[in-house]
């Protein structure tokens, strides 16, 4: 069957596509590289006639969304903040964080559709304009790769919750991007033209966000060296973004390790290093053998080129990759996540400083739990011991207690291994005095005496403790 006629029938301008959106509607902007550009501009151009439109997305990547300029018309919700979201929030009040357990994201969309009658109270927040007494729409807009001969648009490096959002939507709009890599499944990695209402074509020079690759710091290297001690042949690795995980990938590529596997929320450049070096082949994985499975990717153009039509990678929805019940099926699962602060009770903050949102909980909880359920698995949480504040003063990331309004991302009973440039400690089943001693050993020496005084005040320090 020739699906081109159906394609041409649905092909419209961005202005025409967003004309279906009315005041009070909910618009899903796609996650990560799925965020629309042309439709965002077209929707922002209607700001004078629209009010109370809710925009949902996750990890906002450049360019800056135009709708953020018009807070009287649009509210902007990000499920997992990025640096760009932080900047927008500092300038516009109507930018909010929406915390979720990431593996549950597809469920939230499908539950609202499948249980319409029993969820009217919840749905009314988004689906009902009570003043006018009318239902309002859910509109899904996402960037995709060009349609293939079978009528499918590959979702590119942002499988995530996209298929579920499309199922929930009253209107579905695709922005077709020629340079979007085709990322093979897995499952739910593509959407058929029959499920689409409007198609908008992006200019040829549009493509996924090419993340600048910053070289790892000396601290990143020290932390990565401690992490390497926890990895052995046949382990399955989950990494996040940043200099630290990239350093881990480089060290693995240069090591004698073999038969590693990859199962992760986020595919990053470090995986290219590990796979191309031959160290990561997936041969010992219990599920998805010989494949590196993931739900989204943000990285360099080199990484996107590597992903394009790569049969060694498997794109899955997030309710597969991040479900702790799936993660725990993989033996020797090693989860490596970054944190902002750790307190001497061993609570982990990975998302805020005081009331200021920095990131989000994302899939951290999913992988911390799933890796500890894994046979031989480990959860590693890493962070530099210090940082410089706005005045240039050195502050400790190992603290006695968090500032008011700081979020606790991982509770103390879930912490396993914590790593800084000063060492690595294992905390499972440790009493409070032992946790305090171990965690303080990870702090910069300049802050340890004060932390010991705090521990004594909190009555979690014994006279026999090491100093």
Q: Can you tell me the overall shape? A: globular
Average pLDDT value?
91
Instruction: Please estimate the helix content.
Output: 25-40%
The class by helix and strand makeup works out as alpha/beta
CATH architecture assignment name of the largest domain: 3-Layer(aba) Sandwich
Q: How many whole angstroms does the radius of gyration measure?
A: 23 Å
Main sheet summary: 7 strands, parallel
Strand order of the largest sheet: 4-3-2-1-7-9-11
Number of beta strands? 28
Please report the first level of CATH classification, the CATH class of the largest domain. Answer: Alpha Beta
| Proportion of strand residues | 15-25%
Query: CATH topology of the largest domain, what is it called?
Result: Glutaconate Coenzyme A-transferase
The CATH homologous superfamily name of the largest domain equals: Acetyl-CoA hydrolase/transferase C-terminal domain
Separation, N- and C-terminal Cα atoms: 74 Å
Low-confidence segments: 115-134
Tally of discrete structural domains: 2
DSSP helix count?
A: 16
Give a short overview.
With 467 residues, the chain is α/β, with parallel strands linked by helices. The chain has a 7-stranded parallel beta sheet with strand order 4-3-2-1-7-9-11, sandwiched between helices. A 6-stranded mixed beta sheet has the order 13-12-18-23-27-28.
